[in-house]
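Q: Could you fold this chain for me?
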Amino acid sequence: MLTPPGGTLRVTGVLVATETYSWSGGTIGGNSGVTHIASGATLVGGGTIQKILNNHTLEIAGTVTWTSGNSLDFQNDASLSIVAGGLFDMQTDADFA
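A: Sure. Below is the predicted structure, expressed as structure tokens.
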């Protein structure tokens, strides 16, 4: 399980998550990098700490289950891409900004 701390996970290039990836808070970003949730992998966005994508793309080919009660903020040209076969399961009313 890859669990970034409440700080910053800097990705330059492509980070491929192939198992379970838990994001409880903090920032994922860096130099227009990409975090790719591979087919068969799962990202769980949970907890109450704010999550930020900064100059980064979150690309979903697997499953994202979003249970976080706090916002997901997109900064500096950050983006979310759901490719064929990907699923984003929003289970909360948190803001995406």
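A (continued): Strands lie at 8-10, 14-17, 20-23, 26-37, 42-45, 51-60, 63-66, 72-75, 79-82, 87-90.
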